[in-house]
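Q: Structure for this?
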Amino acid sequence: MTTVLIVDDSRLARDMVGSVMSSLRPNWTILSAAGGEEALSKVDGVIPVVAIVDYNMPGMDGLTLSSKLKEQFPSLTIGILTANVQDALKKKAEALGCRFIPKPITSDKIREFLASAGQ
Amino acid sequence: MTHHDDRFTLDADEADAIAELFNIGMGQAAASLSEMIGEEVQLSVPSLTVSSRARIARDLDPEEAARVCAVRGAFSGPFTGEAMLIFPERGTLALVGRLVPVEPGTEAPGELEQDVLTEIGNIILNGCLASLSNLVESELAGALPGYSAGPPAELIGAADDPVLFVRIDVALASGDAQGQVLFLLDIASLDSFREAIRRAVANL
């Protein structure tokens, strides 16, 4: 079973990423969460192959969540989802080994991300 | 007129969609500002409420003490209203100081500082409106934003009529400039806004 983790505080954004993922990878299991804490509790006992994580979320932001996920799953490929592609953010994301997926979400961007993740 | 008229009720999905559109729009605008000043610009998650100008001003300045600088402009299209970038005077000087030298000891923004803030406001507000306009695939005409300064109540107004209020807090990473971007949307335009959101969601 291949699992993708989707974390975004916006239901719209989660649904959109989810629907693109299920059209691109119909056999994958989608695990979605509205925030960092929920995501961490949901991956207990599951090993996702990729994670798509919103940056700007209430409470834990996407980079903090990503560093926690990386501690738990060092080989996990994480895409940080944001319209706010600033150099400072880019550097922090790169330091964690994360990629960027610029919002708004499109099927092509997700496809490209999966290819770069070797999935 | 009550604030709980059906016309003003957004369901959870509509509210979520509006917040996400503003999140994307402001994200792109903040990236432009960050590039301009060479520093990280932090944004809060957008908050969305039905409020009134009187209440918004009160919430921003409960002590009625602060003088703020604002760059604001009206916009119209599938939704109409007013966009504002607001910084306290001190924060304005810190922000403007990233682009032009500000004399030490300056208390209030002078003509040059006002011009620079207006340009920053222009980039942020029009950048955000341009992204929104692209997302909903219809034109949003924006007036050129203008500068004003004073207590929030004077700038925002004291009307009790309901407005749909979107607020995003903006801060420089170094912590010396913290302000807000406010969008006050006319409730009368909510139906066309809903229609625009439906189109945006269908297109994404």
